[in-house]
């Protein structure tokens, strides 16, 4: 178990150096109401830095996140609501599986599976979330995004508590680049890369990138075969 006071202090002052995303226009989630959420504490060796992303449990031993959330050493923190409270599981990531066609320059196929070193212990606070059932499935129009990212563009660090926001998608069909889009400032912006786009209780997308007016999510229904094969093998 980590020293949560040091973790919380670092989390609040750290300026993220990964793709900027944060929950804007949302509210604090009911504690542990999103038990699939995972906070990723990532350390890179060259250069030496610590960053954060989000992810979500899809099996006892696998987390999905964005492919650009890569690091030399990653710890998955499960069952977190408030980063200052010592009430979460911490499991090291054993191996990263970025999508084989991921491109860092333009975040194409920006999805990655993380194999945990050991199985998570499921409880009321820790549980997986289901994915869409069929390939090329349309995404429901109204969805939810959660995360510990920044809550404004003037603060330097992330939120100490899990926050969430409702988003409305511009289109329910995935684009040729396997993305769906939500418009406007409300939504993820800085620190929430890798969070799930949750619609009707299923994870339909992964927060990838965007700007003030456009938020992009990778379509999970387009990657079901790859996800299944990777976890099986």
UniProtKB/TrEMBL annotation:
Cellular compartments per GO CC: extracellular region
UniProt cross-references to SUPFAM superfamilies, sorted A to Z: Trypsin-like serine proteases
Source domain of life: Eukaryota
Residue ranges constituting the Peptidase S1 domain according to the UniProt record: 23-232
Top enzyme class: hydrolase
EC number(s) on file: 3.4.21.4
Catalytic activity as recorded in UniProt: Preferential cleavage: Arg-|-Xaa, Lys-|-Xaa
GO process terms (BP): proteolysis
Matching Pfam families: Trypsin
Single GO MF descriptor: serine-type endopeptidase activity
InterPro entries: Peptidase_S1_PA, Peptidase_S1_PA_chymotrypsin, Peptidase_S1A, Trypsin_dom, TRYPSIN_HIS, TRYPSIN_SER
Entry's localization field: Secreted, Extracellular space
Keyword list, A-Z: Disulfide bond, Hydrolase, Protease, Serine protease, Signal, Zymogen
Secretion signal, residue range per the UniProt entry: 1-20
Name of the protein: trypsin
């Amino acid at each position: 178990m980590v020293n949560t006071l040091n973790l919380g202090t670092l989390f609040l002052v750290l300026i993220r150096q990964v793709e900027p995303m944060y929950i804007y226009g949302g509210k604090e989630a009911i504690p542990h109401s999103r038990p699939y959420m995972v906070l990723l504490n990532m350390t890179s060796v060259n250069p030496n830095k610590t960053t954060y992303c989000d992810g979500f449990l899809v099996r006892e031993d696998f987390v999905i996140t964005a492919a650009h959330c890569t690091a030399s050493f990653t710890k998955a923190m499960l069952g977190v609501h408030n980063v200052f409270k010592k009430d979460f599981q911490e499991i090291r990531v054993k191996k990263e599986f970025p999508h084989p066609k991921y491109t860092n320059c333009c975040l194409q196929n920006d999805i990655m599976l993380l194999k945990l070193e050991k199985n998570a212990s499921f409880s009321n606070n820790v549980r997986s979330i289901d994915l869409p059932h069929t390939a090329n499935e349309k995404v429901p129009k109204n969805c939810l995004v959660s995360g510990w990212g920044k809550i404004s563009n003037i603060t330097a660090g992330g939120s100490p508590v899990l926050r969430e926001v409702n988003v409305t998608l511009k289109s329910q069909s995935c684009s040729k680049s396997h993305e769906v889009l939500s418009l406007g400032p409300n939504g993820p912006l800085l620190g929430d890369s890798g969070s799930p786009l949750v619609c009707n209780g299923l994870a339909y997308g992964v927060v990838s990138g965007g700007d003030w007016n456009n938020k992009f999510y990778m379509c999970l229904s387009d990657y079901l075969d790859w996800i299944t094969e990777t976890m099986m093998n």
